[in-house]
Specification:
13 helices, six-stranded antiparallel sheet, alpha+beta, Helix Hairpins, Beta-Lactamase
């Protein structure tokens, strides 16, 4: 506490005041109060001091601003100040109570660091629905700068189709505030600055303040969790599909082999060596087919488990190379191979997975040509867009019947077994590889042929990869 006269000089101070600013005894008495004010604000403080003595009131300062005092050694001290006036020998003097906020400031900083370093987004919403505080993670979740989020209505973070409902929920929460988690039992989505949506979970905590109930919202982006759940569901579906299909597609060849062996044994007992020789050759062929089927199943199972190492890959050159390798197959099948490939397209991807995709799609188109059409063709196209590369294989082959379309990417599906042999795993493998690369595959098909389209993320900007690599 200090007593200050109108001229601004300190008349008296107590021991705690002296200790706070680093002075001893009566050393500070007689000094202008401005020596305790940071230099940039001293002139302004003189004006405010004069105004205070003209209109003296009891007041508390620094509620809406951070005040600093200056110690004898020049150190800044966070303070809060209370002022009142007293009369001493008919002269008005100011009594200043100075509170040291150093420890509170440290605690506030620790709390700020805790909030800022939280792995979850945190926003503080006032009673009107405006955001008054947010941490770094919240900014990253919603794609805003901190300055943009502060003052923004929290409704802007909700998908447009849910805005009206959210306002009702918000009012309901204000009327009946209680700590609660949200997102359990129903899917919630947030809206980023660019308008895109993402799945999230929210925890709400009311904070009572004199001006009303504030809400602390803890936001968790669960996009990764949803993707893992989707993959698990797909894996479980594949396992069920495999268990169902393998009972026939793997057991049937074994039954055939066993039957042929029984016949061979009978022929062997009758001394028909020539027939036995033919039957054993047939067994070997069946065994090789079964071995190939098992290897294909294992390759399909490995697709999800092997991490794809990504590197700059010239997909146009790869597609051209694979097309050249298939030219002999096309000639033998009487199929015209058409290429519409932009050769210099580069994509951040995995060469092995890309080769599997292109080879299988091209091989299928050739294999399932329509023998009744005069001019069978297969067209391989590779083109680029701003953020993606599009691969397309089109043919005028046998096509896929409407009832079979839902099963196209399932395992062990052969729709034209009378025209060509196969494991029924090719398109299932293609889908796996496309998804492992973060892409999407779709198709159109009728009696006039089929078109398979693959969209692959480019994975980089035009300027981020040396085009000569």
């Amino acid at each position: 506490m200090a007593l200050v006269e109108r001229s601004g000089h300190i008349v008296r101070s107590n021991e705690r005041f002296n200790h706070l600013f680093g002075y001893e005894g009566h050393e500070i008495e007689g000094q202008p109060i401005e020596i305790l004010v940071p230099k940039p604000f001293r002139t302004e403080h003189e004006i405010l001091r004069a105004a205070y003595f003209d209109y003296p009131t009891t007041r508390r300062m620094s509620r809406r601003q951070d005040l600093k005092g200056v110690s004898k050694k020049g150190q800044l001290i966070p303070v809060e100040i209370g002022l009142t006036t007293v009369m001493v020998d008919d002269e008005a003097m100011a009594v200043a109570w100075v509170f040291d906020l150093t420890e509170r400031t440290r605690q506030d900083e620790r709390f700020r660091l805790v909030v800022e370093s939280s792995p979850n987004g945190i926003v503080l919403v006032d009673p009107t629905g405006k955001i008054t505080l947010c941490n770094k993670q919240a900014c990253e979740c919603f794609g805003y700068e901190r300055e943009e989020l502060i003052g923004l209505s929290v409704d802007a973070l909700v998908p447009e189709h849910s805005t009206m409902k959210h306002r009702v929920y918000r009012r309901s929460f204000s009327e009946h505030p209680a700590q609660r988690p949200m997102g359990h039992g129903r899917d919630l989505f947030g809206r980023r600055k660019d308008g895109s949506e993402f799945p999230l979970e929210i925890g709400l905590t009311p904070l009572e303040q004199p001006e009303g109930t504030y809400t602390i919202a803890t936001v968790i982006d669960i996009s990764m969790r949803k993707e893992v759940e989707r993959r698990l569901r797909r894996t479980n579906e594949d396992l069920m599909e495999f268990a169902h299909s393998a009972s026939h597609d793997l057991k049937a060849p074994l039954a055939t082999i066993r039957g042929v062996v029984d016949i061979a044994l009978d022929d062997l007992q009758e001394g028909r060596i020539k027939e036995v020789d033919g039957l054993l050759r047939d067994v070997r062929r069946k065994a090789e087919q079964l071995s190939g089927l098992v290897e294909a199943v294992l390759e399909l199972a490995r697709a999800d488990r092997v991490e794809a190492e990504l590197s700059p890959t010239r997909i146009g050159e790869l597609a051209t190379e694979i097309a050249q390798e298939r030219e002999r197959d096309c000639e033998d099948a009487g199929v015209l191979l058409i290429r519409e490939i932009e050769p210099k397209i580069t994509i951040l991807s995995n060469l092995t997975r890309l080769r599997i995709i292109i080879s299988n799609l091209l091989g299928n188109a050739i294999k399932y040509r329509d023998p009744n059409k005069e001019s069978p063709f297969v067209k391989l196209s590779v083109r680029e867009a701003q953020d993606a590369v599009y691969l397309e294989v089109q043919d005028n082959g046998l096509g896929i019947r409407e009832k079979d379309k839902p099963k196209v990417f399932q395992m062990f599906q052969r729709f034209h077994a009378q025209h060509a042999e196969g494991s029924g795993l090719g398109l299932a493998m293609v889908r796996k590889q496309v998804e492992c690369l973060g892409g999407k595959i779709s198709f159109e098909s009728d009696s006039g042929g089929s078109t398979f389209r693959v969209r692959l993320p480019r994975g980089y900007t035009h300027d981020s990869i040396d085009p000569h690599r």
